[in-house]
Amino acid sequence: MKRWTLFVLVFGSLVGLAAGKTQEKIKKANPWVGVWKLDISKSKLHESPKQETMQIDSADKSSIKYSIRGISDEGKEYTEKYDGKPDGNAYPVLVDGKELGKIAFAWQSEHVCTAQGQGPGGSTLAETVTLSNDGKTITIKSREGKEEEETAVYVK
């Protein structure tokens, strides 16, 4: 009987440890997080940069944090950074180190996040950010004020 009890205890501990490791891997495998490259050929932008990458450090129910680095079509380097919560409140977005406006993100599902922004002079921004089902593409549809909608497509 003692041998059976010992087996159950050891087996139960191993199963618990394995389940914990599996949960840890699942938690680390957030498909939004990572480095994404702008696919200019699939994007429809008013002004297309020569190149652009987006680093997403967090994208979950408690935090959205990203940074963008690029080179404009005129050859000028630029950065954009955002660190906020997807709670519907607006947090600053920095462009080249200066606050350009504020954006409020809200999750609609695991694959869709929406944003409302306010920029200088009262300009507005509305975005829908969608992660593909395979986790390899992010599509951002945005509209500034009454301008025509733009689409930016990023790939891993």
Keywords:
156 residues; Lipocalin; ten-stranded antiparallel β-barrel; globular; alpha+beta; 2 domains
Give a description of the structure:
The chain has two domains: 1-30; 34-155, Calycin beta-barrel core domain (Lipocalin), CATH 2.40.128.20. The protein has 156 residues and is an alpha+beta fold. 17% of the residues lie in helices and 47% in strands. A ten-stranded antiparallel β-barrel has the order 1-2-3-4-5-6-7-8-9-10. A hairpin with a 5-residue loop joins strand 8 (124-131) and strand 9 (137-144).
Topology:
Layout: H1 2-28, E1 34-38, E2 51-59, E3 64-71, E4 77-84, E5 91-95, E6 98-107, E7 112-118, E8 124-131, E9 137-144, E10 150-155
Antiparallel strand pairs: 1-2, 1-10, 2-3, 3-4, 4-5, 5-6, 6-7, 7-8, 8-9, 9-10
Order of helices and strands: HEEEEEEEEEE
Named CATH architecture of the largest domain: Beta Barrel
DSSP, total strands: 10
- The tally of helices reads 1
Strand order of the largest sheet: 1-2-3-4-5-6-7-8-9-10
**What is the domain total for the residues?**
2
CATH class of the largest domain: Mainly Beta
* CATH homologous superfamily label of the largest domain: Calycin beta-barrel core domain
CATH T-level topology of the largest domain: Lipocalin
- Beta-strand content estimate: over 45%
Main beta-sheet strand count, sense and barrel state: 10 strands, antiparallel, barrel
Average the pLDDT over all residues and give the rounded result: 87
Category from helices, strands and their pairing: alpha+beta
Low-confidence stretches: 1-22
End-to-end CA span? 55 Å
